[in-house]
Amino acid sequence: MMARMTSGKPGLPFERLVPVRGLRLNIRVWPGKGRAFLLLHGLSSNARTWDGVARRLHADGYRVVAVDQRGHGLSDKPDDGYSFDDVTSDLRELIGGLGLARPILIGQSWGGNVVLDFAGRYPGLASGIVLVDGGFTELAARPDATWERISVVLRPPDLDGMPRREFEERLRKRHAYMTPERIEAVMGNFEVLADRTIRRRLSIPNHMKILRSVWEQRPSKIFGGVREPVLITAPVDADPERARRRLEAVESARSALARSRVRWFEDTVHDIHVQRPDELSAEILSALRDGFFGW
């Protein structure tokens, strides 16, 4: 294992690169005892967005690891290997390499799709999973959905070359909950170049490869094979049509999963873990304490 940074201060993580399947994945680690949590970010995001949640879990004495998945953050960025077969294989080797005994896996957005897929492929390696507004919807579920349309509607904006200051100002205007610390976490999605402009760490071509894998995934065919307890957390959407679709997706997942519970967050956006880290952590810890995740 290759060290990158050590905080040396209680409550703060240390960071290092670990070898996984021929790559180096960057992890942020909050040391602790007993149960371990492994946190997976969403598409074109990074491990630092979990800092608020990780601090709360760590404060209760738990070991917490957040990972930059391949292509993201400070991890290596290969040109291929972005299918669910690849990213779940990364996760399996990471769990084994770190000696995590049946961790609780928490995934946000695409990270939710990853941990759901992992639970379906590798039963028994996790003691529970948490889906944070991800993993319970199918892009292909709507009658009018086609890859051609999805690939246009969900293609990320080309932000390369934008001044960092301009991008930060956009974040502040769009999201009132963006504190300086949260802005710094989001900035982990980008390199800041010498001229103070930004460049995506996950390239758009690799982003689109992941998006294609999400398009092809069928969570509805995975739910029935998941034996681990599943905590679903989701925002209450202000748009009635989006709210209806999300509710239908969550109820469909609940009916198919062997053991599940749901927590809805009002006045919250997609990035629940960034906007409401304390409430999200409290819900996860409550589920752990009342035995929902077993052991």
Strand content: 15-25%
- Count of separate structural domains: 1
Order of helices and strands: EEEEHEHEHEHHHEEHEHEHH
Widest beta sheet: strand line-up: 1-2-3-5-4-6-7-10-11
Number of strands: 11
Indicate the CATH class. Alpha Beta
Poorly predicted residue ranges: 1-8
Number of helices: 10
**What is the CA-atom radius of gyration, in angstroms?**
18 Å
Strand count, sense and closure of the main sheet?
9 strands, mixed
Mean pLDDT: 94
The computed structural class is alpha/beta
What gap, in angstroms, lies between the N and C termini? 28 Å
Helix content, binned percent: 25-40%
At CATH level 2, the architecture is 3-Layer(aba) Sandwich
Shape: globular
What is the CATH fold-level name?
A: Rossmann fold
Explained architecture:
This protein is of the alpha/beta class and 295 residues long. The protein has a single domain, classed as 3-Layer(aba) Sandwich (Rossmann fold). Helix content is 37%, strand content 19%. The strands form 2 sheets. Strands 1-2-3-5-4-6-7-10-11 form a 9-stranded mixed sheet, with helices on both faces. A hairpin with a 2-residue loop joins β2 and β3. α1 crosses α10 and α2 (84-98) packs across α3. The two termini are 28 Å apart. The relative contact order is 0.15.
